[in-house]
């Protein structure tokens, strides 16, 4: 690829809180997709359960978007492509409401709660302020690359 391809073996992708076109998750997912194409995704997975929430909301298939990323398209070109190819049309207000919901989402079932707690106990067991998935991902990214919880 080129110098702009994220190397997720050296640093974390963008925070899930980062937005593109009003969508949270999308910039992080683009980083993971580009890194996967370049073989530099490390332990990060494109089309993980978090990403799948975005794919379902927008109505784009993961492999379709990966194909667009393989063309070398930048973030704004990808956003334009999404606008032309999404099967689900949402107003800016609907996108904002969905993004806010994602920002506040917590583990909802026992299996996801156990997974959340496992990562939390490794990344920062004494951090009582880690309650949402986004909180956990930001902390885990920080600690993974040398930060102290």
Which stretches of 5+ consecutive residues score pLDDT under 50? none
How many β strands by DSSP?
Answer: 2
The whole-angstrom Rg is 16 Å
Fraction in helix: 55-70%
Q: Biggest β-sheet, characterized?
A: 2 strands, antiparallel
**Integer count of domains:** 2
Main sheet strand line-up = 1-2
**Number of helix segments?**
7
Spatial separation of the terminal alpha carbons = 33 Å
Write the layout of secondary structure elements.
Elements lengths: L18 E2 L2 E2 L1 H13 L10 H10 L3 H9 L4 H11 L6 H13 L5 H15 L8 H12 L5
Antiparallel strand pairs: 1-2
Keywords:
mainly alpha; two-stranded antiparallel sheet; 149 residues
What does this structure look like?
- By secondary structure, the protein is an all-alpha fold.
- It folds into two domains: 1-104, no CATH class; 106-149, no CATH class.
- It is 56% helix and 3% strand.
- It has helices at residues 26-38, 49-58, 62-70, 75-85, 92-104, 110-124, 133-144; strands at 19-20, 23-24.
- Strand 1 (19-20) and strand 2 (23-24) form a beta hairpin.
- Helix 6 packs parallel to helix 7.
- It is globular.
- The model has no long low-confidence stretch (mean pLDDT 94).
Describe what is shown at a glance.
With 149 residues, the chain is mostly helical. It has two domains: 1-104, no CATH class; 106-149, no CATH class.
């Amino acid at each position: 690829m080129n110098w702009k391809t994220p190397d997720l073996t050296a640093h974390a992708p963008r925070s899930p809180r980062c937005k593109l076109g009003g969508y949270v998750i999308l910039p992080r997912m683009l980083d993971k997709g580009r890194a996967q194409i370049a073989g530099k995704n490390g332990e990060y997975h494109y089309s993980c359960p978090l990403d799948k929430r975005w794919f379902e909301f927008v109505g784009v298939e993961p492999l379709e978007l990966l194909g667009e990323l393989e063309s070398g398209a930048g973030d704004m070109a990808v956003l334009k492509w999404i606008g032309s190819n999404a099967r689900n049309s949402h107003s800016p207000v609907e996108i904002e409401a969905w993004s806010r919901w994602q920002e506040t989402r917590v583990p909802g079932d026992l299996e996801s709660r156990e997974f959340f707690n496992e990562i939390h106990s490794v990344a920062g067991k004494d951090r009582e302020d880690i309650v949402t998935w986004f909180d956990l991902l930001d902390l885990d990214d920080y600690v993974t690359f040398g930060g102290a919880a």
